[in-house]
Amino acid sequence: MNMELRHLRCLVAIVDTGSFTDAAIELGVSQAAASRTLGAFEEVLGVRLLHRTSRNVTPTTAGVQVLARARHLLAEADDLVAEATTGHTRLRIGHAWSAMGRHTPEFQRRWATLYPDIELHLIRTNSATGGLAEGICDLAVVRAAFDERRFAGAVVGHERRYCVLAADDPWARRRSIRLDEVRERTLLIDRRTGTTTVDLWPDGPRPAVEYTQDIDDWLAVIASSRSVGITPESTVTQYRRDGIVSRPLRDAAPIPVRLIWRRHDPHPATHAAVALLTDLYGRRR
Question: CA distances (Å), 249 to each of 161, 181, 207, in order?
Fold first, then answer.
């Protein structure tokens, strides 16, 4: 015989109500059934869990330990059921760096108005798929290549590229920067979740490269060194930091912004999210 959730529920009910009779009423079974279930649980574990007298029922030393774990396991089981049964009333959108950039607040406001029965959660995860591959979200905003065998996607807009540098950098006095000039600098790249690679310079010399692990490290290194970074407009608008400025790259191709989802298991609200974000990106400033 294996341990079952009914064993855990029976133990908790007996202790919480103080008697087999009241526990049986709470569980919707007979007193004899509650007694048999508790006995079976003790047999599975090989220990006595409760002291029984004619007046009360109290946990043994082993019972106290098992009771604490039982409460935790039952709570986890209840959470699992709730998540499975309410999954379509919640939409989780993941992202690695910035969500929808300057469109994020408006997306949240309009979603709440248009779809009040579907709770929206934005989740930042240091993952190339914004947490989609890890099962953390239902949709993800990505600005780099993804595995098209596992995921489907739609382009919802495009973002201009910016050069990010320290506020006291000589380039900070300029209004814009040419992509070709960055060859002369040390370029900071997050090769796991970033959007920039040296493939931006297919011909001729490429900039020296240093690597970081996530957006916070990337910003901290740029602020404290002579390295520069290249990033979409969304990063610039969503992460404003002291000691850092950004300047548009005049001759760099824009970055496509995509919503992606699991190809064989899309959330029912997927197309609604795609349509809303496409509309926001399509509006002029």
Answer: 6, 10, 15
pLDDT digits (tens, 9 = 90+) for 28-40: 999 999 999 999 9
pTM recorded for the entire structure: 0.69
Give SS3 for 92: strand
Q: Which residues contact 189 (CB under 8 A, 6 or more apart)?
A: 196, 197, 198, 209, 210, 211, 212, 229
**CA–CA distance, 282 with 179 (Å, rounded to integer):** 26
Q: What's the CA gap between 64 and 49, in Å, rounded? A: 8
pLDDT at 56 (0 to 100): 84
pLDDT of residue 178: 96
The Cα 162–Cα 249 span in angstroms is 5
Please say whether the dihedral angle defined by the alpha carbons of residues 251, 252, 253 and 256, taken in this order, is positive or negative: negative
Which CATH topology does 87-158+256-282 take?
D-Maltodextrin-Binding Protein; domain 2 (3.40.190)
| Lookup: tokens for 43 | 């047999």
Q: Which residue has the tokens 């929808």?
A: 100
Q: In this structure, are residues 122 and 273 in contact, taking their beta carbons and an 8 Å threshold?
A: no
Name the class of domain 5-85. Answer: mainly alpha
The torsion region of residue 131 among left (phi > 0), alpha (psi -120 to 50) and beta comes to: left
